Amino acid sequence: MKLQAEQDETDLIIRVQGDRIDAAGAVPFKDQILQLAEGGTGRVVLDLSQVDFLDSSGLGALVAIRRMLGGRALDLLSPTPPVVRVLRLTRMDMVFAIHPAAGSLHGA
Amino acid sequence: MAPDCRFDDSFAAQPVEVRAVLARLRRASVLRGVPPDAAQSCELVLAEAMNNIVEHAYAGAHGCLRLTLLRGRHHLICRLLDRGRPLPGLALPSARLPAQDDSPAEGGYGWFLIHSLSHRLHYRRTDGLNRLLIVVAANNLAA
User: Fold this and answer.
1) The model's pTM
2) The domain B6-137: what is its CATH number?
């Protein structure tokens, strides 16, 4: 999976440049994100605007990344409607902070 | 030209093959004109069911999986066939969300999603063959 990381003063923003986080790619995805997170500081923000498919393995990877980051926050940015649907159905919208757009990253 | 009323594909039971058949299904004529919500539900339910077969029925062993999808007037009717191990207790697993104790569960969402997004489910084991029937609602599909 192609990922692009960008560090600003408060956040490490990682743009996911593949269109699916699924069973065939969940483990390397998790490892890549954790490796990028080590090289940055602050909150980890995953930009999911290009991801239009998330299955239970991909969801499990997100939960595992969140746990392995320890006290560091993992937020989700710009998830697409099919991804939001999975997050809502599984109540993971209560676990992850979800930002509809980059402008909402730093509060209202 | 009217969309096909049937999609039929056989493939090796591996995660990358599951991803590939879902990509073929996305482009297939059988889903043309299906409302996006219904097509997305169908893709996710099939992904969960097929990955479950790869991971548990075959559990890493070589095997074959067959997907047939029929387009009805109001439903997408999917059938999955495999020759892996039967579902435990020869029954569909529970529809429950995994328990969220101190921290959220990292697995166990698959069957919850299958139950949540399907209209009807039926499982049968005969002659060493698992047959899973999944019906996804799709309102007013033009023929």
Assistant:
1) 0.94
2) 3.30.565.10
